[in-house]
Amino acid sequence: MRKRNGELHAENAGLTKRNEGLQVKNEGLTETNEKLQAKNDRLTKWIGELEDKNDDLEDLNGTLVSKERQRNDELRQARKELTMGLETS
């Protein structure tokens, strides 16, 4: 009985030591997880800012393309009027 009791105490001591080691690893993993979560949050915010800038640039590009087309139409019309004016002279 004492032998079995000693074996159980030894097993318990081994499990306790193993549990302590796992707790230390868990604390380290929790700290790593928190750091990764913070980095992920920063990256998510940065991506959102980049998406906003991209949207603004797309809007600006659309405006510039529209103005370019308008100016090209105005130039075409002026060229046409100039050509007609030269032909009638």
Structural class: mainly alpha
What is the mean predicted local confidence, pLDDT?
95
Helix segment tally: 1
Element order: H for helix, E for strand: H
Q: How far apart are the first and last residues' alpha carbons, in Å?
A: 128 Å
Model regions low in confidence, pLDDT < 50 over at least 5 residues: none
Shape: rod-shaped
Helix content: over 70%
Biased composition (Basic and acidic residues): 1-10, 68-82
Region (Disordered): 1-33, 68-89
Task: Summarize the entry for a quick read.
The chain is mainly alpha-helical. The chain has one helix and no strands. Helix content is about 100%, strand content about 0%.
Secondary structure topology:
Layout: H1 2-88
Detailed description of the structure:
- With 89 residues, the protein is an all-alpha fold.
- Helix content is 98%, strand content 0%.
- The chain has one helix and no strands.
- It has one helix at 2-88.
- The longest helix has 87 residues, at 2-88.
- It is rod-shaped and about 125 Å long.
- The mean pLDDT is 95.
